[in-house]
């Protein structure tokens, strides 16, 4: 231990900027930006013999962080697996240690010292060391060889303690794999608060003003009430426990929300007697004692016992948008569930509604954190005077409601970068450093149930917002760096090592990969890492193209899919007699079909939605097709002429003036040409994949 401390002290003493040398290194670009940087010359480099070295006194507690870094570096560099060791670092090593003495860094801050010999990350807490590894990875990502870090000293720490994101999984299901990926994605940007909204329902007028047919879902496995668990997508208890465990190892706090007593149709469908006859079945009847019995048991199922489902320190109880006429009952209900959650050793979060629900019934304040989203429901000044801790979640700045026509489809990133911080709660701005403003959170609400939005579409909206808001909640407003400069750096920063939820495929001049005359031909002079696929299954390569014979007949490709913007072009000669739903291209997320269902027309399917182009591919003759997609829709070309653009379709709701935009987007599936079970019969040749839209030649 003494040797390690002596080494660190000597390293810092030797590492001083030399005014006589060349210009010192500018701060490296990372998101969020470094709070403090002292540059030096030269650079640290990973070497073939590099290792991740743990200071002996910290080795046990930092082991998990070291092994996550080890795997991340392997994904990033595509090189050898760096060994994890304990001891004193040598040239090319990454050194991790705890330093409890440096209290100026707080719970999440860290010190990173990069010299030509070693790179050392130290912090008072494990969390700080972990954040330091995220900075290291981002800088290496920007380096062309993924091996260099500029020499200097970074002292980094967050401006706000809570840096969050809210995801509505109640009205649109997101797979557990998506949530796992999001934990890692958020962590890459030092976002530490993942609020998962587990239940909700659609809008009553959108379902014929019939509560029985109005969509509602609760996403957790329930053993107390098996009928409560959504049939169209849910998480087992063990999956949710493991998600929280994963999040903890990545420095992210999962906040599960059971939303009551409004947005509660899933519960009243289970037990109709607890639905409000006065305010509607999406409101619970707060005068009925059975309501408390049922909701108590639901919370207890996930909080009680030696192996609770909710394992983190905080639980959100909802309490949003209840009818004005029952303020006292609502306040009593809110207080009851704050105390119920606390009785299981958790802290409670609530939605801000107590200004709207003004009354005399006391609601617990101490240790309760409130998301304030609309100042008319909860006046932020009034709430801070009462003593609530605040998470700034302003709808006028931070609400994404995909393709809904209200709130934001994509956030106004420039305005957020230039003007917003968590101290801004809608039109109220608190003083910088106000201790009750704990941080901020932006949100995705899936109000338009059944509108065709996919996980990919949601991520397309969230990704750039995550970058900007990570910057604003960690570093605050940076007047030294314009939005244009930030955006340029952000465009070259990804989702983390090995992650590619956006389906981005680099390629010189836009061409990602191609098959010509049935032979895999990777483009010349390409900067892409994509390699050509191989013939497997029953597909046969001949001079005139790739031949498919139905059933299990496919070519496995080197990538699973390509995201927006793209064009996939190919020539096709279908055989006669192809059945319905035969597949041209497939991946785990989507399929492109020669004959969509019973229509006989070309189409595609993803996430339970089926779409069809008004076009039948001619049999026994060659046709040149191109499918192009972006975040707005999908287009089909035949022989270089536009056939149809699937974009802008709307669904009207009977009896209302409202309508819903139907999203007809596609991440193009590339894992297989053909399919492992339902391939088409025919020939494909001259396949080209471009990473720009409407590229026909």
UniProtKB/TrEMBL annotation:
InterPro entries: Beta_hexosaminidase_sua/sub, ConA-like_dom_sf, GH, GH20_Enzymes, Glyco_hydro_20_cat, Hex-like_dom2, HEX_bac_N
Sorted UniProt keywords: Glycosidase, Hydrolase
Keyword presence, Hydrolase: yes
Domain Glycoside hydrolase family 20 catalytic positions: 160-476
Protein name (Swiss-Prot/TrEMBL): Hexosaminidase
A GO BP annotation: carbohydrate metabolic process
SUPFAM superfamilies in the record: (Trans)glycosidases (SSF51445), beta-N-acetylhexosaminidase-like domain (SSF55545), Concanavalin A-like lectins/glucanases (SSF49899)
Listed Pfam families: Glyco_hydro_20 (PF00728), Glyco_hydro_20b (PF02838), Laminin_G_3 (PF13385)
Gene Ontology molecular function terms on file: beta-N-acetylhexosaminidase activity
Domain Beta-hexosaminidase bacterial type N-terminal: 28-157
Keyword Manganese listed: no
Active-site residues (renumbered): 321
Origin organism lineage: Bacteria, Pseudomonadati, Bacteroidota, Chitinophagia, Chitinophagales
Domain of life of the native organism: Bacteria
Similarity comment: Belongs to the glycosyl hydrolase 20 family.
């Amino acid at each position: 231990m003494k040797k390690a401390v002596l080494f660190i002290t000597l390293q810092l003493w030797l590492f001083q900027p030399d005014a006589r040398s060349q210009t010192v290194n500018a701060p490296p670009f990372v998101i969020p930006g470094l709070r403090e940087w002292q540059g030096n010359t030269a650079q640290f480099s990973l070497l073939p013999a590099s290792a991740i070295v743990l200071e002996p006194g910290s080795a046990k507690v930092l082991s998990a962080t070291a092994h996550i870094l080890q795997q991340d570096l392997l994904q990033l560099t595509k090189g050898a697996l760096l060994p994890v060791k304990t001891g004193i670092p040598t040239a090319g090593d990454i050194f991790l240690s705890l330093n409890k003495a440096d209290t100026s860094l707080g719970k999440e801050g860290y010190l990173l010292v990069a010299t030509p010999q070693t790179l050392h990350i130290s912090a008072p807490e494990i969390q700080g060391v972990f954040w330091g590894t995220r900075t290291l990875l981002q800088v290496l990502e920007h380096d062309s060889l993924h091996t260099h870090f500029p020499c200097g000293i970074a002292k980094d720490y967050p401006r706000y303690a809570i840096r969050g994101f809210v995801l509505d999984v109640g009205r649109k299901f997101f797979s557990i794999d998506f949530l796992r990926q999001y934990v890692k994605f958020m962590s890459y940007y030092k976002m530490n608060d993942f609020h998962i909204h587990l239940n909700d329902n659609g809008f009553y007028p959108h379902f014929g003003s019939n509560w029985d047919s109005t969509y509602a879902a609760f996403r957790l496995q329930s053993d107390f009430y098996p009928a409560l668990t959504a049939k169209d997508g849910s998480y087992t208890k063990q999956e949710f426990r493991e998600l929280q465990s994963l999040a903890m190892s990545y420095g992210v706090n999962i906040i599960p929300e059971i939303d009551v007593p409004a947005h509660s149709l899933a519960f009243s469908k289970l037990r109709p007697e607890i639905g409000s006859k006065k305010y509607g079945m999406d409101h619970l009847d707060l005068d009925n004692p059975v309501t408390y019995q049922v909701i108590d048991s639901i919370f207890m199922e996930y909080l009680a016992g030696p192996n609770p489902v909710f394992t983190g320190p905080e639980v959100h109880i909802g309490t949003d948008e209840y009818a004005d006429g029952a303020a006292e009952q609502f306040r009593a209900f809110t207080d009851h569930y704050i105390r119920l959650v606390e009785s299981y050793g958790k802290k409670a979060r609530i939605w801000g509604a107590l200004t709207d629900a003004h009354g005399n019934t006391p609601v617990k304040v101490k240790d309760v954190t409130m998301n304030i989203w609309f100042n008319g429901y909860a006046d932020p000044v009034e709430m801070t005077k009462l003593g609530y801790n605040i998470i700034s979640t302003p709808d006028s700045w931070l609400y994404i409601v995909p393709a809904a026509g209200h709130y934001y489809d994509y956030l106004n990133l420039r305005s957020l970068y230039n003007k917003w911080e968590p101290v801004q709660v809608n039109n109220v701005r608190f003083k910088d450093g106000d201790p009750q403003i704990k941080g901020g959170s932006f949100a995705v609400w899936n109000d338009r149930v059944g509108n065709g939005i996919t996980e990919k579409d949601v991520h397309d909206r969230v990704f750039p917002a995550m970058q900007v808001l990570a910057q604003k909640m960690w570093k605050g407003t940076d007047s030294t760096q314009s939005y244009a400069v930030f955006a340029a750096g952000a465009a070259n920063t990804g989702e983390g090592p090995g992650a590619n939820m956006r389906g981005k495929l680099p390629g010189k001049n836009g061409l990602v990969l191609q098959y010509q005359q049935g032979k895999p031909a990777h483009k010349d002079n390409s900067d892409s890492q994509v390699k050509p696929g191989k013939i497997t299954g029953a597909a046969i390569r001949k001079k005139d193209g790739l031949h498919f014979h139905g059933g299990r007949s496919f070519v496995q490709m080197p990538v699973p899919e390509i995201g927006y913007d793209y064009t996939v072009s190919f020539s096709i000669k279908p055989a006669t007699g192809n059945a319905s739903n035969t597949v041209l291209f497939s991946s785990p997320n989507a399929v492109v079909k020669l004959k969509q269902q019973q229509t006989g027309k070309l189409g595609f399917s993803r996430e339970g939605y089926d779409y069809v182009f008004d076009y039948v591919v001619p049999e026994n003759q060659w046709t040149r097709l191109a499918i192009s997609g972006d975040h707005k829709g999908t287009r089909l070309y035949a022989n270089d002429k536009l056939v149809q653009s699937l974009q802008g379709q709307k669904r009207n709701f009977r009896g209302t003036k409202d309508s819903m935009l139907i999203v007809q987007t596609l991440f193009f599936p590339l894992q297989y040409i053909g399919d492992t079970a339902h391939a088409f019969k025919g020939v494909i040749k001259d396949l080209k994949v471009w990473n720009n839209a409407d590229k026909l030649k």
